[in-house]
């Protein structure tokens, strides 16, 4: 009965996921996917939303003015990002220098600090990081400082840059699409294409707010319900068949031990682009990396089980046959 209920729950989740996938597919036009991504990115930011609002009000007569003003916004953002990238790269190199050189010869490194890293301290405008390093007494304090402060602050710095880069790319895509409309010579055709693009932008914003976000909530609820149901049914089965469930309990204990080991050895990279684009902190990144290691271990064990279980069963079967044959002989 328990297995049937679990199968029903999993089937319902699969059906809902399929329906949502069909709904997304029906709403998307492959030719406009880049424009859709650009609009979704721009509306996450106040300045980007302002550009979209101005475009919604643009007319054929004012389109060139809108394009000129938006181009200036893009140029300013692009120039700012170039300077910010230099600071972020220097920050990253500074952290790596502290990780390698300072931990190997802390006293020698500190004696020559900050002269030996002066070229990397362009990001330290007010001398904050110089003061923080000079207050450290030994390697242990440096390692704690790296983990608790520098990694987190570099991650925040890099995330800010990557968000700006993503916004700059979205603005460039939006400008490129709009330039196609602005370049049309026929006034009537230009008006039609402008109105069509404005409708697309409005549709993309509505799609993101009214379709995508509620769908995520539905998926979260279904996933949570399925997870809780599996845990509840597993516990119920263990309690009702406790004498025969010790192997399951041992397997769970082994999994917990492996999970702890994976967490202890996890060391996420400071410059992990995926984590930073998703605004994932180093602490959360450590959990994700530990979970990845755990998946590798479970997958490897599953493969070994698939390979060796039939072999072990065959050996046991042959032993049983031999034992039975010897019994008949006696």
Number of helices: 11
Coarse structural class:
mainly alpha
Strand content: under 5%
The description of the largest β-sheet is:
none
In total, the number of strands is: 0
Arithmetic mean pLDDT:
78
Shape: flat
| Low-confidence regions | none
**C-alpha Rg, in Å?**
30 Å
Helix content: over 70%
Can you walk me through this structure?
- By secondary structure, the chain is mostly helical.
- 83% of the residues lie in helices and 0% in strands.
- It is built from eleven helices and no strands.
- It has helices at residues 2-27, 33-42, 46-57, 63-104, 106-111, 128-134, 139-182, 187-240, 246-265, 273-277, 282-329.
- The model has no long low-confidence stretch (mean pLDDT 78).
Key traits:
330 residues; mainly alpha
Could you give the topology of this structure?
Elements: H1 2-27, H2 33-42, H3 46-57, H4 63-104, H5 106-111, H6 128-134, H7 139-182, H8 187-240, H9 246-265, H10 273-277, H11 282-329
Helix pairs in contact: 1-8, 2-7, 2-8, 4-7, 9-11
In short:
By secondary structure, this protein is mostly helical. It has helices spanning about 1-25, 35-40, 45-55, 65-105, 105-110, 130-135, 140-180, 185-240, 245-265, 275, 280-330.
